[in-house]
Structure formats: structure tokens, C-alpha cells
Amino acid sequence: MIKFIVKRILYILPTLFLVAFLVFFLVHLIPGDPALVMLGDEARPEAVKAIKEVLGLDKPLPIQFGLWIGKIVMGDFGISIHDNHPVLSSIADRFPVTLTLTSLATIFSILLALPCGIIAAMYQNSGKDYLFMGATILGVSIPGFWLGLMSLLIFSVYLGWLPSIGFVSIWEDFWQGLRYMLLPSITLGLYMAAVVARMTRSSMLEVLRLEYITHARGKGLTEWTVITKHALKNAFAPTLTTIGIQFGMLLGGAVVTETVFSLPGLGKYLVLAINDRDYPVVQGCILFIALIYMVINLAVDIFYSYFDPRIEYK
Amino acid sequence: MIGLGIIILNILVAVMAPWIVTHDPMKIDIRNRVSAPSGVFFFGTDDYGRDIFSRVIYGARISQYITILSVVVAAVLGVVIGAIAGYYGGWIDNVIMRVMDAIMSFPAILLAIGIMSVRGGDLYNVVIALGFVYIPRFARIIYGSVLSLKEKEFVEASLAMGNSDIIILFRHILPNCTAPLIVQATVSLAYAILAEAALSFLGLGAPPPTPSWGNILSDARNFMVDAPWMTVFPGIAITIAVMGYNLFGDALRDFLDPRLK
Fold it and tell me: Tens of pLDDT along A124-178?
């Protein structure tokens, strides 16, 4: 098992390098000169040249890349052109907000999706099932940012039940924090809930057809025991993979949700940095999010083995 | 069938847009700015007095155009890349699939945002960004299919007949991969509409005053409280369009699956 984990970590290293390569050259193709952005369009050419020397922007691209990779490995993601703060520390300040949002969205979607998927599988082709299928199709079709806007309109503006913008950390004040995060989490999590619910239903259907389930029922076990103790564990493995992949996609979706609800998270920071042509921040944020995504996929691969011990690790 | 019906309706609306619209979608009419839905302006007007109904109809055209074009780009490139990796194997396979893995290491919308920030807001740049982001999905599907098909006897026979690799790939192997390819295409079309709308909403998509559904919603944000109609109708349009592709894709998957076995 440890060998498998080490092997998987080693496997992602070349991919990580490629990811860093992609990020670096993507950002360095951004039109506009960051030195001019810092000093203003009216800056003297000598000042622009001096700044470029200080930032290392006058060196050839491959050398800039090598220097950048060296710094990343040491934990130096550069300094923001906009506010002169170290990028990594700004990311560290904002990432907890994004993490809270994506975690709450995941919890919400699992709490909604699992029971719905299981019930739909148990009552296949009944009215409940058709209602379920209709709801999930709607769930994957509604644009998240529109759902966010509409829920703001209904629950904040018209009904006044929930706050519209702002953020309180759940670690400082749990219930207030939850109030502020409820709408954003549901907005972000609904798509994932629909996808996970469908996956749960189809994998439950496959498992419920197997002979050992018939055997369990034949033994006189209650349907609840059959489902929770026998069927769910086997059905959960593909669902877990889906949850893992979707969690990663939530990190991307968080960019839009944070913009709609004005949350001080990483996504909003990235969008602002793109508008400001703040290279170090854009590079740092995209690389950081990609890293987290890869770590999550690795964790999903490892946890999968818990639910399906038949997997062999060579 | 419902899905197919919705898709056809969407495409018809997009094509017939110039004849369906009641007003010029770009025409500014400050006297009628932010007015509620009425007999003259079916969906109301926006902050420049532009008719939202006409903008939503034209938005269908822009969205379908970008979506279909970007999926075609992704499919063509993905098929070629996946086929080459699957057929030749060895270091070509390793390098290509590692690059595909690297691209898939980014959440799709994030990579699209990154590419749009490089290339700037322009219709064709959105096509390039979305197309690039979806290439790995097609490449993987074709890669898997080609890997399993290249061991079959008909490929061996074709080789024995002296056919070149290209003929074997394009005339024999790829036609057998169409089922998963079509399913992936409908899934990608659904994602692409949502992605394009999200990009435009963030100001990184089709440039204003081009009426894209995302653009209209982005403008509507500032008037949400006073003019909720600006928010409601474009969102419904997006939902219906995406639902069409999802319904059709689901039905297609169910229809094609037994045949694959």
C-alpha cells in the first residue's frame, strides 16, 4: 500500500512539471508589459528597464522559467505586482475561504445526492424515480452563476432570510458563518449533487442486481440492512471517484461563485489579478489550484482501495 | 426525443434569428431603458434600452456558434491525438497522454479563464480556449477505443494486405469509435454552453456589445433588484439549451450502450 502511494506520487511529478510549464508560458503570453503596468504608461524607458532587471523580466524565457521553478520548489511564489505582498501568503489568506466554500458545497451535495440516488435506485422506474431523473437533468443544466443570482434575489432581497454578500469564518462564529455560506454553497454544490446522485443511482442499480443481495434478502434481513450494510459499500466506490473529480471541478466553479457573492476567496483574487495583469499572482493561483486538484485525485485513488480491496497494486 | 427537439429548436432559433427578433439587439433607446416586459418588449429592456428578447435570441446564435465550433475543434484534434497515441504506443503514447493528463489537471473553467486572459475577449479566442480545454476528453475516449481495437483480427488483416497506418486508422479503426465519440460530443456541447456563459459573465468571453447570454446576465447583475427580468430570461434560455443536449446525450448513451457490448 505504501509502495502504491509512493509510486503514485512519483508518477504525478512529471505531470506537475508539465503543469508548471503550461502555467508559466500561458501567463507569459499575456499581452501587456507588467513593468509598464507597475510604473504607468508614462514611465521613462530607463525606469522600465531598471524594473525589468530587478524582476528578472529582461532574461530569456527559458531562464526565467528555470528561476521561477527553483523559487516555487523553495516555496517562493513571487511578489504581487499590484500590492507588493508575497503571493503565497496572499493565497494562504484567501484559500481557507475557497476551501470552506468547496467543502460545504461538497457536504451539501453528498447529503442531498446519496439518499436521493439510493431511493431512486430502490424504486426504479416509479414516479419517485422519474421525478429524480427530471430533477437531476435540471440540476446539471442550470448555470451555477444564474442560480446564484436568482437565489440572491429570492432569499436575500425579497425574503430577507439570508445575507447577500460578505463573509464570516465558520471558525470564528459557526452559525453566522454558515448563514453567509449557505447560498454560495448550495449554488456551487447543486451541479455536483445532480452528478453524484445519478452516479449513486446507477451504481446502486448494478449492485442491487447481484446475487449476494438476493441472498441477503432471502436470509430475512431488513431492506435497510441490505442497503446500508451490503449494497452501499460496493456501490460507493464509483460514487467516490465521481465525488473526487467533482470536488476538483468545484475549485474552478468557485471562481464564478465567489464573483457572484463577492467572497474574499482565491477565485475572486485570480479574476482581479487577471484584470490587473498581475503575472505572479495569476501564475501562483493557477498553479496552486492545479496542485490541489492533483492531490485530491491522488487521495481519491488511495481511498478507492479501501472500498474495493480487489484492486491490486503492482 | 425531447432533447433532440430542444436542440433543433435552438438551432432553428439561432439560424432564423434575424427574422424572429422584434428589435435590433444592438439599438440603444435610452427613453425605454430598464422597462418591464410588455407587448412591445417581450422580455423588457436593459440599462441601454436594448430589447432583451432580441438579445436573448441573438445570444442563442452566438452561444450555439461558439459551442458547436469549439466542440468540433476539440473533437477533431482530440481524435487525431488520441488515435496516434493509442495506435503507435511506446514513448509517443507516454508523452502524449502525459500532456493530456497535465491539461486535465486544471479544472476546465480555470484553464479557459487563463487562456482567455492571454488572448483577450474575442469570439474566436473563446472557441480556441474551450476547444483546447476539451481536447483531452476526446483524446482519452479515442485512445481507449483504439487501444482495444488495434488488437483485433480485422486490423491484422488490413496490415497483412499492406495498408498504411493512416488507412488502417482512418478507414478501419476510427469508424468503430463513433459511438463513444458522439456521446462525448453531446456531453461536451452541454458543458461548453455553460462554460461560455460563465466566461462571458466574468467579462472574459464574447466582447460587449455582442449579445451573449453570459454578457446579458453580467449586465443584469447591477440591476437585479430593480429589473429582475434582465436576470430571469437569459438564464432560462441557457437552462433549456443545456437541458436539450443533456437529454439527447443521455438517451443516446442508453441507445448506443447495448450495441457496444
Answer: 777 878 888 888 888 888 988 899 888 888 888 888 877 777 777 777 788 888 8
Q: A115 preceded by cis ω (within 30°)?
A: no
| Distance (Å, whole) CA A65 – CA A309 | 42
Tell me the CB-side half-sphere exposure of residue B171, using CA atoms within 13 A: 10
From chain B, the residues in CB contact with A30 under 8 A are 117-118
Helix (H, G, I), strand (E, B) or coil at B209: coil
Task: Show residues of chain A in contact with B101, CB under 8 Å.
Answer: 15, 18
**Mind spelling out the 3-state secondary structure of A213-242?**
HHHHHHCCCCHHHHHHHHHHHHHHHHHHHH
Run of H or E residues at B233: helix B229-260
pTM of the model: 0.83
Q: What is the ipTM of this complex?
A: 0.82
Domain ranges for chain B, please list them.
2-260
Answer left, alpha or beta for residue A40, where phi above 0 means left and psi between -120 and 50 means alpha.
left
Give residue-wise pLDDT tens across range B171-217: 777 777 787 888 888 888 988 999 988 888 888 887 777 788 888 88
Q: How far, rounded to the nearest angstrom, does the alpha carbon of residue A93 sit from its chain's CA centroid?
A: 17
State how far the Cα of B76 lies from the Cα of B54, in Å rounded to an integer: 33
pLDDT at A61: 78
Residues of chain B in contact with residue A27, where contact means CB-CB under 8 angstroms, are 114, 118
Q: Could you confirm whether domain B2-260 is CATH 1.10.3720.10?
A: yes
**A295 close contact with B: CB closer than 8 A:** no
